[in-house]
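Reopening: homogentisate 1,2-dioxygenase still failing for me.
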Amino acid sequence: MPVTPFKVTDNYRYLNGFGGYKESEAVDGALPLAANSPQKCPYGLYNEKLSGTAFTAPRDENKQTWLYRILPSASHQNFQPVPAESSQSLTSPTPEFGKHFNAIPNQLRWDPFDFDEKSTWIHSLHLVAGAGDPQMKQGLGIYIYAAGTSMPEKSAFYSADGDFLIVPQHGTLDIRTELGRLLVRPNEIAVIPRGIRYNVSHTEPVRGYILELYQGAFQLPELGPIGSNGLANARDFQTPVADFIEDFSGDNTWTLYAKFGGNLFSAQQNHTPFDVVAWHGTFYPYKYDLGRFNPVGSISYDHPDPSIFTVLSAPSHAHGHGTAVADFVIFPPRWLVAENTFRPPWYHRNTMSEFMGLIGGSYDAKGAGKGGFQPAGASLHNTMSGHGPDMQTFEKASNGDLPPAKVGEGSMAFMFESCLMLGVTEWGLKTCAKVQESYNEHSWEPLKVHWKRPESERGLSGREKRNGVGDARDGSSVHDIK
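Support: Ran it again with your exact input. Result attached.
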């Protein structure tokens, strides 16, 4: 198994395993026995239920967690809209349903996004693309974050709009959540579910990508004929253990930020939101090391569909079985051994939209360097927009020798894939000034024509010549005809 070259040691403790029931207490005995809501909770704690799904959701999809905390989360002043000119405002609020997204068929690619040395986590959230509406709990949003400074110590943020799938590209995120602490480094991911409050700190500028899922929840993809193990194994996901702060004297002011309906609100409270002493349930944040992904691939011929690299999937039941409102797919280091095969991805047009990013290294299907597909950059190939290898990659893959070869060494590319047609925000299309206007010119306009009409032979077509003389219309093999 490849070892992820982490620069920062993770000293936090975690619970292992994807999904299912978990429990944790920072003080022994803080979880009540045989009841979720006793008349008096241990140690004078308040109980609070955090519901990620409807109460009546099927058992295997039901997400509910019981929190045992010093003060309830309801204890705060009224929320007020955060002024647009505030240093803590959202730089690009979510457009209203069906408005302000630029839905265009052009292939798009972005140069690496800049750091913003003055921004904290909240202000650095730049909405690039998306579809749907968080108020209707439909669709998704795709963000770039690039923060230079930590959130203020006595502040917390949550999104009521959806789950945050966070993909760091540079810098380590130290995330304190209500349920415990996560250290998330490049080549790891984290999922912070809807409504969970957290604070992000870091010792250097950080940058990365976020997919906000407005509907449903991420799950591991079915393995089918692959069997019981492979791809992202459940045992490698990590959930934080209970960890709390004792700050309830009333002498301090904490600021709570809420992303609600695509806009930002703030409220004041005189105690910490990170006071959960114990919890148990099925709704919690988690992280995963991409270096533990176990890829599969062809060992004979043909490049398989990229779905074999899916880490997490959020099904879209409305669009049919096997269709996702969001898939998170990675392209890790792996061996290519297929013979007599064009090994990079083939040219294709998909009903699914593909937003790609590069955490580090280079992607084997695209050229890098200035004007190419670079770390901290991105690309979007929307519904039915044709794409595939650039000219240099095609020529090399078509004409080179095919010994077993390892690709992606020191590299990690990923894809947010969706059945929805993605629109691009004004920030993503214009304000960021990172769109590569010559993307098509660089990638596909230089493709050469290799077509050569075969010479006529005794008046037979090319198909007839390949199959043998004549046309077997009586059901016999053409090779049986004398």
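The chain has four helices and 28 strands. If you still see a failure, please send the error message rather than a screenshot.
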